[in-house]
Write a structure and sequence with these properties.
alpha/beta; eight-stranded parallel beta barrel; 9 helices; globular
Amino acid sequence: MITIGVCLETVFTDQPASERIARIRQAGFTCVEFWHPEGTWDGSAIRLDWAKDPQQLREAAQQQGVILNDFALHAWDGSIGGSPVNLADHPKYLDQVRRMLAFAQTAGIRKGITLSGVVVPGLSRAQMRDHLEKALAQAVELARQADFLLLLEPLNTQVDHPGYYLDSSREAFQIIRSIGSPHLKMLYDIYHMQIMEGNVLATIEQHLDCIGHFHAAGVPGRGEVFTGELNYPNILRRLESLGYEGSFGLEYFPTLADPMESLRQTYRYLLGD
């Protein structure tokens, strides 16, 4: 059975992470994820004075009966932890992966998101692709030693992340199959890939073996999943029929004034109760 999770960064943004976990549980969800531990999103920026403590997160999750599913190992643009497409950033990136694997072990988390970073001026896409694969191959070996799953995430460059290198699921699947490790899969963000490619269900059906996690938001606007052009209950039913048993993460920005009501309406919409 698919578990529906919530990214704590985008809800209850006036509260610290541990309180957000409690409120997400009150809304009916038992799975949580978050962005990088160095800070917490407050609705307008990452607050570095709200850095996340792995032991506190673990205790908060255990107290609420919530699973900590995954988190971002570094920032999408390389501002935290470096960019794998940039060869000069590889030592910084791999040091970050090591630190985040230690964080994950303490927090009790078995999956983490890795990003490509932004396009490097003066380099061809072939050069950046080579740098990315080399960095990921080393990160995957670290993940193997830690029995951890890396989730490679393509993002959209049309609306939210201009300049990001990896904006194609096709290229992400190629990279994952080229490296060929059970410790590297794709985070298929339906919101991002609907913007960039469409053809969501057919892509999932063809490549589900390479997908380790999903993200979801309404398209357009990145609001609740019951807004926009996608039929998320139908997508979930198809995933279940295909035998997917992982988590399905909600990473959206509420348009309703009350985030608790937003989450509860989303729960009813997706799960029908």
